[in-house]
Design a protein that fits this description.
Layout lengths: L1 H11 L1 H9 L1 H18 L1 H36 L1 H17 L4 H12 L3 H11 L5 H11 L4 H12 L6 H19 L19 H16 L3 H35 L2 H15 L7 H9 L1 H9 L5 H14 L1 H12 L6 H26 L2
Length: 365
């Protein structure tokens, strides 16, 4: 009897409190309260970080992403995505277990960088062109850096090593391809979304018919389609800009509170134990939150070039919590889940860093 009363009191008291504190909502509330207290303690630093975030968004991200967002919406409305999807269907199905329309998202994601590929995947899911599992497979490996940032900003701007670009590109995009091949086994018992028949010489006519059918189903005149595309691109760009500003402030406040320094001190012994240079810790800590700062820290870490390149490859592939928040906000309007994307980013970072070591003898500067 006493044991039963004790178990009852434990279940209704301490255990309930532990379960309550372990829930995401109280933890998020505590983090918000901590950030508000830090903002009140460092108002000037918060304002400066906000201005820097706005400058990065307005000067770099907005002009880089806006045209791609508009063109993606236009090509969906005009049926161009469905045209290429039918053409690519015989390739995408056996290789990645995805319908052909996913091939357009893969191409746009590689060319324009995050988060355009995830945006296209979400739109395809909203239109019913792909299933939830296919959307999770697609988002897992289309979230990559654009070549302009990888070559111009990282290789040339941060490292001052143009010859490093082929190595970083091979490791980063090769890692994305490996992730795509791994995720083809993700929920592999589910059937692939069916598409129009594309066998033999009927491939091109089927693609043209798919484009015409998609355009007819959309039905919006070109002027209305352009207006809707611009409005959608502006709304998404504002969300991206807000997240960039928010994480800029968060990182500044964490640095002021010496939390980043604490993470750095914890990570250094782990890196030494793994046989990696301890100065790389700043790159991993910064890259955990933001890809640009992480790549810059990797270039300036003072470690040998091989290790700095591997750290930069990890940062580009992990993409930072800022990009994670952008992707989560985009797929949050659909039933595509964030957990597979998180697992893919973690695996992509490790694979890309390993590819740098494996390819150094052939592509290293």
């Amino acid at each position: 009897m006493h044991g039963e009363r004790f178990r009852y009191r434990e279940g209704s008291g301490v255990a309930r409190m532990v379960r309550f504190l372990a829930r995401p909502a109280p933890l998020a509330s505590a983090c918000c309260l901590m950030l508000i207290a830090l903002m009140a303690a460092h108002p000037s630093a918060s304002l400066g970080a906000s201005l820097r975030g706005v400058a990065v968004w307005w000067d770099v991200l907005f002009p880089a992403l806006f045209p791609f967002f508009v063109m993606a919406e236009l090509m969906l409305g005009f049926g161009v995505v469905h045209f290429f999807g039918t053409l690519l269907d015989p390739l995408m199905r056996p290789v990645f277990r995805l319908p052909g329309v996913a091939g357009f998202a893969v191409t746009m994601g590689l060319v324009s960088g995050y988060p355009v590929g995830a945006r296209l995947a979400a739109r395809l899911r909203e239109q019913g062109q792909i299933s939830r599992t296919e959307g999770e497979r697609l988002v897992a490996f289309v979230t990559t850096s654009d070549p302009i940032f990888l070559i111009g900003a990282v290789s040339v701007g941060f490292f001052h090593q143009p010859a490093l670009a082929p190595l970083l590109a091979a490791a980063h995009y090769g890692g994305a391809l490996v992730i795509g091949l791994i995720f083809r086994r993700y929920r592999r018992r589910e059937p692939i979304t069916r598409a129009a028949r594309t066998a033999g010489v009927r491939l091109l006519p089927a693609a043209l018919a798919a484009m015409h059918r998609a355009r007819s189903e959309d039905g919006r005149p070109p002027g209305r389609l352009l207006q809707d595309a611009i409005g959608s691109a502006l709304r998404l760009n504002i969300v991206v800009g807000g997240l960039v500003v928010f994480f800029s402030v968060v990182m500044e406040l964490l640095a002021r509170a010496n939390i980043l320094g604490l993470l750095d001190a914890v990570l250094q012994p782990l890196l030494r134990g793994a046989g990696l240079p301890a100065p790389l810790s700043s790159a991993f800590v910064s890259g955990l939150f933001e890809v640009t700062l992480g790549a810059k820290a990797a270039a300036e870490s003072g470690a040998p070039l091989l290790y700095r390149a591997a750290a930069a490859a990890w940062v580009l592939s992990w993409a930072g919590l800022s990009v994670h928040a952008q992707i989560a906000s985009i797929i949050g309007k659909t039933d595509i889940r964030y957990a597979p994307f998180l697992a893919a980013r973690a695996a992509h970072g490790v694979i890309s860093a390993a590819l740098v070591f494996a390819l150094w003898g052939w592509l290293g500067p």
